[in-house]
Amino acid sequence: MVDRLPFFEHLEQTARRQSSLLCVGLDPRPERFAPEIQADPDPIFAFNRRIVDATRDLVCAYKPNYAFYEAHGLPGLQALRKTVEYIGPELPVILDAKRGDIGSTASAYARAAYEIWGAGAVTVAPYLGADSVTPFTSYADRAVFVLCHTSNPSAHELQEVWADGRPLYHRVAHLAQDKWNVYGNVGLVVGATYPEAVSETRALAPDLWFLMPGVGAQGGDLEAALQAGLRADGQ
After folding, report:
1. In 3-state terms, what secondary structure has residue 112?
2. Which residues pair with 64 in a beta bridge?
């Protein structure tokens, strides 16, 4: 692997340089593209390129959602590769793939995310425990955002189930902060649509970076999310 700055160090430097904590999702849906984009020979890449060109000096990271590329087969995956290459090494890329499987399969997913697609970080589902997380964290220069309390309406069906006197997402935050973060490369996904959960998770994981989806189309409040989620250092 090519030597690189550890992901969270890269992210912090970029956030300070850009004066931004904004991560822009790249979730292409060709049926919604403007006619001139649909007419492009590579419409998914053209759509992403337009967004990146408009926001490159305003963001701290980009987050392509793997599903929207895989849904279009090889052309979609080729557009994903071109997008990551177009963003370039100056800006962090988080691959939103929400992977989660047993150790050998998770190792293959990790290799794909980091070595094939060139992501600096990837989202991971911890439902299988450490077996689904540590193959990703073993890439010490890359990062893992573990799903903790997600932004979707039915998140409470499992994530807020109580066990051992606390909700499950509290247990995830505890494991991420105290057990899985051996290399200092673990963060948490905590939806901005649940500011109370964000606040509780921040208390449990005071040092971790949060990826906070839900501001925008899902209706999350930006000010409430920041008030609940910022660390003591303002990051």
Report:
1. helix
2. 26
Return the number of other C-beta atoms located less than 10 Å from residue 228's C-beta. 22
Nearest to 210 by CA among 23, 6, 13: 23
For residue 141, what are the CA distances in angstroms to 107, 119, 121, 144, 188?
Answer: 16, 11, 9, 10, 17
Q: CA–CA separation, 68 vs 89, rounded Å?
A: 22
Is 82 known to be catalytic?
A: no
pTM: 0.95
First to last CA, the chain: 29
The 10s digit of each residue's pLDDT in 66-85 is 999 999 999 999 999 999 99
| pLDDT tens-digit map of 160-191 | 999 889 999 999 999 999 999 999 999 999 99
